[in-house]
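In response to the reviewer comment on reproducibility (Comment 2.3), we provide here a single inverse folding case reported in full, input and output, so that an independent group could reproduce the run without further information from us. The structure tokens appear first.
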């Protein structure tokens, strides 16, 4: 029997590959983005409470109403924007599902979708499965900035969607107010939809602010934003998130969502609804992760890696060109196998595998793990291992 693959060129996601390699070689895993510490005890108790109290059947397709109400209040509080909890917010099975369902809902065969590369790896396959064409715009080390004049040149009458990600994985850069104002200008008068991936909204450092697409009234009618409880609650394995957008867009999103997953885990939604009543649960994330970033960077400052502290996310990219000329995929493998620290190569997030000689470290780890990893990283400097 002949199988006609819909994604013939696609391999296994780099996150599974590098975590697999880290486990195989017992390397410290700073590759795939997940904390090595547990989520809050109180949150776990809330989950057991709701499981044990029988909250175990389907909840509404749009999400648990009291959770979407908490989210509407949080959005109003943080971004000053009004989104209706019933018609404009939907709980999803992670940001990945929100992204997939959104793309399936809006992208028609032959439509173009502009993606900022390096791009989180679920974007491109989701567009291809909808029959869309990916139009890449590349940002590059060390400043990872979008030149909006160049970006605007990619817009055609086939452009259906622009996908943004701020704070940006893997570069750790963020979009500023000026970026959104430029974006506003270039989409004015078009039918382009914007999907803004903001899963790291609470991880922005050095007193900088997270600008959300939801804050720009001129962009409201055309925008959806995605979020991840996995990131915000240190519970990536729960695969829960949400999407926010204007009612007319959400109406179309729900047509796909209802047959993609229909609904997401009920008792966890109850637990999260209780937990997020206290805004300290998420407002403390920036100082918490900034401290980890600073701790790690201080420990590797004398290594041959060159870096500028990231502005957001829990990822730090670093240039390794003082150590090796080899491609970043090879270097990442060797870091894992020979030096005991697994990292993510960045070239895999570019359609043409652009190799800037940078790798990504995840610093969502305990200080002990960061310290041990840093020690191995610094040994590379001393010439003991290379
Ligand atoms: N977008 C980006 C930029 C991510 O880094 C991730 C990984 N958390 C996701 C989306 C997917 O999030 P989730 O695990 O909630 O599906
Ligand atoms: N978002 C995580 C990262 O960037 C990984 C998610 C996944 O493994 N698919 O590392």
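Designed residues, in position order:
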């Amino acid at each position: 029997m002949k199988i006609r693959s819909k994604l013939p060129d696609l391999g296994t996601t780099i996150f599974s590959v590098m975590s697999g390699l880290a486990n195989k070689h017992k390397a410290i895993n700073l590759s795939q983005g997940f904390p090595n510490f547990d989520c809050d005890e109180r949150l776990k108790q809330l989950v057991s409470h709701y499981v044990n109290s029988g909250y175990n059947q389907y909840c509404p397709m749009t999400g648990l109403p009291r959770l979407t109400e908490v989210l509407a209040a949080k959005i109003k509080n943080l971004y000053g924007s009004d989104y209706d909890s019933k018609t404009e917010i939907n709980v999803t099975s992670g940001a990945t599902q929100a992204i997939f369902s959104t793309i399936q809902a809006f992208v028609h065969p032959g439509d173009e979708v502009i993606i900022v590369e390096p791009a989180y790896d679920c974007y491109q396959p989701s567009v291809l499965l909808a029959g869309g064409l990916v139009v890449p715009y590349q940002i590059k080390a060390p400043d990872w900035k979008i030149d909006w004049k160049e970006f605007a040149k990619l817009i055609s009458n086939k452009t259906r969607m622009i996908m943004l990600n701020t704070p940006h994985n893997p570069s750790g850069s963020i979009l500023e107010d000026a970026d959104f104002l430029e974006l506003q200008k270039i989409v004015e008068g078009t039918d382009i939809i914007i999907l803004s991936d903001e899963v790291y909204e609470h991880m922005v450092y050095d007193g900088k602010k997270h600008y959300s697409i939801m804050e720009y009234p001129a962009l409201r009618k055309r925008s959806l934003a995605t979020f991840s409880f996995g990131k915000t609650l240190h519970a990536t394995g729960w695969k829960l998130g949400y999407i926010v957008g204007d009612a007319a867009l959400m109406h179309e999103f729900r047509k796909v969502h209802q047959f993609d997953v229909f609904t997401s885990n009920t008792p966890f939604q109850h637990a999260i609804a209780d937990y997020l009543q206290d805004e300290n649960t998420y407002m403390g994330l920036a100082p918490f992760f900034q401290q980890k970033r600073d701790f790690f960077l201080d420990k590797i400052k004398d290594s041959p890696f060159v870096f500028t502290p990231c502005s957001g996310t829990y990822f730090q990219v670093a240039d390794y060109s003082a150590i090796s000329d080899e491609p970043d995929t090879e270097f990442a493998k060797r870091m894992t196998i020979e030096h005991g620290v697994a990292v993510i190569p960045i070239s895999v997030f570019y359609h043409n595998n652009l190799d800037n000689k940078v790798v990504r470290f995840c610093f969502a780890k305990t200080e002990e793990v960061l310290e041990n990893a840093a020690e191995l990283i610094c040994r590379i400097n001393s010439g003991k291992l290379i």
